[in-house]
Write a structure and sequence with these properties.
Blueprint lengths: L12 H20 L4 H13 L8 H27 L1
Helix pairs in contact: 1-2, 2-3
Length: 85
Amino acid sequence: MEWQVFSVFGIFFPLGIPILVAIAIGLPLSLYFWRDKLLILLFLLTIATYPLLFMVNVYYMTLILLCFSVIMLLLTKYGIKHIMD
């Protein structure tokens, strides 16, 4: 039964551990590299899409995250960077 305990994020306990690790590692890095807003956007996007693991297959989720990352990289390189700076 302890495997079905919900974490603070509303995710099952075993899957709540990786997101806690991601926050513990990613948040200080994002704050340190505050000038590079792309890192923060990708970090927040990854956390925001993490619960989708329950709705889609893990392989599809990996493809979705890769597509989001590529789109964010392209937008930052060619457009958003000028708007955000």
